[in-house]
Amino acid sequence: MLQAMANSKKIRITLNGRRCEVETTPDRILLDLLREDLGFTGTKKGCEQGECGACTVIMNGKAVLACLIPASKAEGAEIMTVEGLAQEGQLHPLQEAFWAEGAVQCGYCTPGMLLSAKALLDTDPAAAVEQIKQAISGNLCRCTGYTKIIRAIETAAEKMRHE
Q1: What is the pLDDT along the chain (163 residues), one digit of tens a residue?
Q2: Where does the chain show beta strands of DSSP type E?
Q3: Comparing 2-84 with 93-161, is the CATH topology the same?
Q4: Which CATH class is domain 93-161?
């Protein structure tokens, strides 16, 4: 324990638009830093092996798996968790569409799905169905069968293109 504390260092990140500084150790993963140290529990802990997508966040504009990233590698990064999607009390179009289309069942995969979809639509707001399927292919859902999720992403993309 003392050795881990001696090896700790402060890192600076921008989390959901706010700059913060947090102390971490070399063995700490981003997922645990977000959930346990910073209280952003919307980022779900699933397989912890990069297979399920439950821990997906957006880091420097790309969807990444927080369970595979050492926290120290986030130094200077811009990170968005699901808590950062809604702005000023207004749901993001993806959140609205997931609700309206019934794309949320148990909800465990939803944060990762939302962020994978956002990363896609931020780079390609006119993404085709095949691109949507590819973007969420690393996110496992055991409840919906993906049809409603894909439809929700299409609905949100349409709305975002016309805003």
Answers
A1: 444 556 899 999 999 999 999 999 999 999 999 999 999 999 999 999 999 999 999 999 999 999 999 999 999 999 999 999 999 999 999 999 999 999 998 999 999 999 999 999 999 999 999 999 999 999 999 998 899 999 999 999 999 998 8
A2: 9-15, 18-24, 56-59, 62-65, 78-80
A3: no
A4: mainly alpha
Radius of gyration in angstroms for the set of CA atoms belonging to the chain, rounded to a whole number? 16
Q: Which fold has domain 2-84?
A: Ubiquitin-like (UB roll) (3.10.20)
Dihedral sign for Cα atoms in the order 77, 80, 84, 85: positive
Q: Is the pTM of this model over 0.70?
A: yes
Domain assignments of the chain as residue spans, ordered by start: 2-84, 93-161
Return the axis-axis angle of helices 147-161 and 110-123, rounded to nearest 10°. Answer: 40
